[in-house]
Every structure is written in C-alpha cells, then in structure tokens.
Known about the structure:
- The complex is a heterodimer of chains A (375) and B (415).
- Chain A is α+β, with helices and mostly antiparallel strands and 375 residues long.
- Chain A contains 11 helices and 10 strands.
- Chain A has a 4-stranded mixed sheet with strand order 1-4-5-8. Chain A has a 4-stranded antiparallel sheet with strand order 2-3-7-6, with no helix packed on it.
- The radius of gyration of chain B is 22 Å and the shape is globular.
Amino acid sequence: MNFDFSDDQKQLRDQARKFLAEKCSPKAVRVVLDGKAPYDKELWKGLAEMGFLGVAIPEEFGGAGAGHLELCVIAEEMGRANAPVPFSSTVYLAAEALLIAGSDAQKKKWLPAIASGEAIGTLALFEGKGNPSPKNIKLAASGGTLNGVKKPVPDAAIADFAVVAARTGSGGRDGDISLFLVDLRAGGVEVKSLTNLDPTRGQAELTFKNCKAEPLGAAGEGWSILSQVLDRAAVLCAFEQVGGSDRALEMGRDYALDRIAFGRPIGSFQAVKHMLADMYVSATLARSNSYYGAWALSTNASELPEAAAAARISATQAFQHCAKNNIQVHGGMGFTWEFDCHMYYRRANAMALGLGSLSYWEDQLIDRMRKKNAA
Amino acid sequence: MNFEDTPQEAAFRATARAWIAANAPKQYEDELRKSSLGRTQLKNANILEVAKAWQKKKADTGWACLHWPKEYGGRGSSPIERVIWQQEEGPFGKLSGMFIIGHGMCGPTMMAFAREEHKRTYLPPLASGEKVWCQLFSEPAGGSDVAGLRTRAEKDGDEWVINGQKIWTSGAHYSDYGILLTRTDPTVPKHKGLTMFFLDMKSPGVEVRPIKQASGASDFNEVYFTNVRIPDHQRLGEVNDGWNVSLTTLMNERMSIGAGVSTGFPELFDYCSSLMLDEGPAIENAAVRSKLASWAVTASGLKYTSMRAISALSKGERPGPENSIGKLVAGSMIQDVATYALDLQGAAGVVSGPEDAEVAGRFQAMLLRAPGTRVEGGTDEIMRNIIAERVLGLPGDIRVDKDVPFNKIPTKGRN
C-alpha cells in the first residue's frame, strides 16, 4: 500500500501551481467575473502548451498519455486558482465521454483538438430542474436529428461541440437513453447565455431544432456511459473542490493573522481559531476521500462508483463550508465585491450543483453501499 | 497511489491470518463483534482476563506490539504491517483496550527516556500484557491546563517523595505501573518546574479510588499519593524537563489513537439496513439516507486520513498533523450517531437494558459513554486549539500565567 501521489505527480502539481499563480491571478479571474471576456483565452492557450488539457488523453490522440492521477493533481490546482476556463466541461465531461464511448474516428477528430486547446467541449445533460435520471431526459432523437432544450449546459456558449443525452426509447428507463455528438458550429442549435451564480464559468441554454447529430456509443447505452462519465467527473471535480477549500482556508487563516481588533490579531480569539480548525477538518476529510476516489479512478477499480460518490459529497461539503466561513472570518470586507472571498463562495455553490445536487449524490452513495454489501 | 498489498505485504497478511485463525479466542468473536463504545464486555467471562490471555499468547509468538523493537518485546514490524495486523485481528482487537495507554503512551515514553536496563526489564512484560501501565498526568487543578498540576516531588537523598492527587487515571485500578508527572520546582513558571517518573503502583502510599462516571461505569480513578518514595533512577528525562517528556507521550497518544477511532457508523449502517419504520425500511427513507451518507463520508474520510499518515510514516516521513483530527471528529460523531439511532426507535429508545432494548441497547450504551470521548485525551476545544496553533500557525492564546512563577499564580484559595 502507498496511499499518496508519487514524487513525479507532486512535482507536476507544483508546476501547475506555479504556472497558475503566474497566469491566473485573482485579477485575471476578475476580467471574466466582470463580464469583460467569456473565458480566459490566454490561460486556455497556456494550459494547452503546458500539456495540461491532454494530460489524461492517450498519445495516439494527441495527449500526454499520463493518466488520471496526473489529471487529479492539475484539477486541484485549477480549483485553487479558481481558473475561469472551461476545463471541467471540456476535460472531465466531453473528453471522458469520448474516451469511454467514442469511435476511433470521433476520438481522432476531437481529442487532439481538445489537447491542443482548439476545441472546447461540454456535456448537455440537464433539462431544467432535477437531478441526473433517465426520466428527466425528454430531448428526442430520431433519424439522426435532435429536437428539444437543454439547460443549464456548462460553458455551452463558448463550446465547439457537445455530448448530448437524448431519449431514443419510449419510456424513462436506462435503455431508452442514447448519447449523441453535436458540432455546435454546424447549425441547428440556438444558444442563449444564462446569468448564473458563478460568472467565471458560463452556463447556457441550448435549443436543438432538427439538429444533425451522430451517435456516441451504441444506441440504448447512453445512461450506462453517462453514469461512468459522471463518476469520473465526480472525482475530478472533487479535486477542484479540495483545491478551492484549501485556498479559502488559507485566505481565512492569513486574514486572521493580519487583522487586528481589540488590540490583537483576530486569529488569537478562540471563536475564530475554532472556526478555522473546523475548516481544516472538513478540507482534510475531503482530501482523503478524494485520494481514495483518485485511486479507484486511476485503476478503474470496482470500488469507483462508491468512492466517487463519497469524494463528491465530502468535497462538496468541504468547499461550501470553507468558502462561507472564509467570508465570515473576513467580516464586512468579506462581503464586498472587491475582496476575492465571494469568488470562491460562488464557485463552491455552483460546483455543488453541476453534476447533480448533494442530496442526489447522498442517495447514490447509499444505493452503492447497499449494492456492495449485498454482493 | 496503490491500495493493493505488495507480495511481501500479502505474505505477511497470510501469515497473520493463519495464526489468528488458529489461535484467537473464537468463542468470544460474536460478542466482541457486537460490542461497541460504552459496552465492551463478555457475558460469561471476565474481559480483563480474556484480554490478558490473548495478549500473552500473541507476545509468546511475536505478535504483540508489532512496531516495537524485538529486544523490548515487539516484532520490529513496519507501520504498514501493523495496519495489516489490525485489519486481520478484527474484533479481537477490541481486547486491546486495557493496553492502549501502556502500549501507546507509556511504552514509547520509556523507550525514549528510560535507562537501558529498565527498558529491558519493564518493556517486555508491558508488551505481553502481564503488566499493565497507566498514565498519571491530569489533576483536579490541571485538566486541559495539565502544566498547572500540583503533585509535588521532593528530593530526599537518592529518592523522591511524592505527595498529591491525580484524577481521570484510566485503568489505575488494574495497573501495575504508571508514568507520573510531578512538580519539582514551584518557583519557576509552570512548564519549567515539572519532572517525569515511572513508579510501581503497589508502592506504599499510593491509593486508588474508582470514580463512578456519568455512564454508571468506572473506567477512571482518583489516585492519591502520600509520601510515596520513588528512586531517582526511575526518573524519565532531566529534572524540571518533564514538560518536554510529556510532549513525547502526548504525541504518541495522538498517533496511537489515529487509526482506531470509533465513529459508530458501521453499527448504525447495519442497524438501518434491517430496521423497519412505520412507512417502510429505514434504509429506503430519504431523511435516513441523507444522514447516513453524510456520516459515511466522515467515517471514510477519517479512515483514509489515517492511511495517508501511515503511508508517510512507512516512507520515513514524519506523519503530518492530519491525524490530530481523528478524535475531534469521531467524538462528536459517535454521540450524534447514538442520538439518531435512538430517535429512530421512537419512545422505545428510552429503554436501555440489554435484555429489553433494541439491538441489546448498544446505542443507548454508546450515547451514555460518548460525552467522555469528547473530553478524555484532550477536549474538543483543546484539539481545535492544537489544530489552529500547530497546523494553521495561528497565535497561541494569551496566557496570563505563562511567565509567572508557579507559586505566584492566583489560585482562588486552592493550593
């Protein structure tokens, strides 16, 4: 047993941290936050040049051919930096769906373009309120064309292609769902940007009208593929959330050391110290659960569904907890637009919903634990 | 990142498993499996005797105190082998409760500070469970503020004369030896006038009085010292350097607690898996599932946190401070878990007698024992201070007595 990242992986993490500290300062994040750009194009280009976009994509498809553990350490740094780029939608969702179910031709077309930064991808799953479920997918596919509405779709306004979950059968069963690949530049899709909690990562509504689409994976396999994609993304997002939790904790700690009230640093008051200690506790639990998820992901272990749900829940709780209490430690200044605290608060709460809500994943975890116990 | 055993680890696991299968006291397995915090006892046997017999059997074949050097009664095993052993020992590990303080704290302190001849004399019978040790630190006037302790040690020739009182001493009533923190110089600030010793608990002048706890049981004691004489060669560390010696003990306490903290989660998950509520199976109830999931990730988070520490240890790195969260998190969790298990039982949750209560009253016993867990070995508040100060680097509390000679600290009439 060795329950830690390797020295090479830790080195990669340091490299990513250094790169992002330089290229993705809070000031750079604010350009997107303030609506002056839809995402940070320069940073996206830089991430491609560093090889970070294709780190888990095999070399034959233009990637670095490293693996998911390497992607985990980069994800952690993306979360720490609050990077305003479509990393999670392109790399965790679209690329993973292609890796799991894409034909050779589909992989050849899109994966090298992802790795080089030329293509942004996303997953169009949700149709308004509700959590991931075959019952909630109404968008219809017939004869290679799609009709229906998807929202919210992450980064859809800047995406070049989307993996779309559509109904091909008559009921709401797993086998009634199939996946399709849609070139968003080819017409047949209307895009409307949606104002959302976290402006540093866009959300949009996609309306498909007789839109041409090619199948991704076998017909009726859509739900099974999606479940795998969501599990993988849950682990990868958990690392972003862990990075964000650590950063929010550090910000709170630094402010508590710096800020003087009643003649002493506020970090010397137990009420503040204990709040920060509790933030450390939840960030640590989330990190440990996420490491287990990373192991399961990287070895494609049978424990992955359970490990992914646990990482997802733990990291969601930790990031929300750390982000909100970071504002509390900062007091009034924490509630200003000027201070960066709200950027993590926004990101934490948006990420808590993106792959399905906390209660959805809690439900999933119990199902998966019962399944394991029954086996 | 690897969870599989190496071939060497797999071989060790197989050896351990075979030995346990052939030697463990199987007749108690079921009862031990069903025991949990607040109720670890056997119906038809004295658990202390069963525990001592099992420990001795392990020691005779080199399965006691695995990580200790062989010459002191251990096996010289790696940290990971120790974890493998714990996994394989399973419910029989619950028999180690009475040895935790001796093995986890007193032993390592002796190893670091005792004379070589004492180590060779005292450590092997400590490892084998033939002799049980306790730790005499806390006092009525020094709980969280342990450096405020008042038990005096005064030099008389080659001996020290001890007078004072300790409290909350786990297992003192069945202990043979103890490590004892005393005040040797009251004229200097409190941390600078302490000295550590070990002593025979049967020495004349030692009186042990059990404390009846809020749970009704008696695990802790008061220990009184009246002119107890300890030879100087039983001193651990330098005179007046006892505070530093005690930090070694407490550091080991945190390490030893890390892996085995009890959260109550497996018990609750089991219970909910078969429990029927008015509206159907508990495990299918949305509110129950949400609670279970949240506790599940807390329990798994603690487990993997300690595995990270063990990985670091096995690579020769000092384990990070992550392990210090274990007791803090598990203590309040087990209390909440027990409260919730009773809530699920409705009015019947009030019945606690093993004969009549749900699942033999295990959650009622857990509920009554849980407040102690949040206090012993450092209260929740002290644990948060430790995390805030040692891990996050926040300033220490303002301590008005820090640079004041001990005998000038106001006492509100106590002395």
